[in-house]
Write a structure and sequence with these properties.
The protein is an alpha+beta fold and 226 residues long. The protein has 2 domains: 88 residues; 114 residues, Immunoglobulins (Immunoglobulin-like, Sandwich), CATH 2.60.40. The chain contains 3 helices and 10 strands; from the N terminus they run αααββββββββββ.
Amino acid sequence: MGVGIDYALFMITRFRSERRAGRSVADAAVEMVTHAGRAIAFSGLAVVIGLSALLATGEPTVISMGIGGMVAVLLLVGGLIAFVVADMSTERPETERAIGPMGGAVVDVPMQRGGTIAAGGVEVEGALVELGIVPLDVTVVPAWTLVNTTQVAIELGEPHASVIEGCCPGPLELAASRLEPGSSTELSFPLQMHVGMDGPHLFAVHVPVGEGDDVLELFARGDFRG
């Protein structure tokens, strides 16, 4: 029983780790069996081989104990893997998450926004996006809505990001570079950090507005942790 509980906790811990990384229920179950399940199978096999040594004693009582132990471990390992996989895979259905350009599942995190900024007739509410604590190996996508508050069309230049703290912003995506009077467009970029890149990250996003020197300055900040 003790071995079974230990194996079950090992598998469930791996499953929950995969779920925290953004994988779906089905994908997390596959990863759990591929890694934790394989380790448990080898561990169980090692126990069976060890118990098989009891068969060489010649004592009927000891031999029966060895056979019983071997059968019990084999049934335990097989039944445990089958039961845990079935149980984990029958969690309530979820919508499959999109995969970001950096390979991680796109997840929603609570974002707080602050400040309003305007330049060249384009206004953005929530110029600073606070991502809070973000898990590693998943993709989050801070985004802003740019609104043309004038009565004339405005051309937006190519946006670019700069790093104030941390590293590695993803590619910026501007839905439309021309804003008609009163219209809006979305600007976003993915962020994903891996092991070794954890910690606070702060980015500035610069968007040229019109043909002059006007530039929108937007910011995104998050604390990426394992």
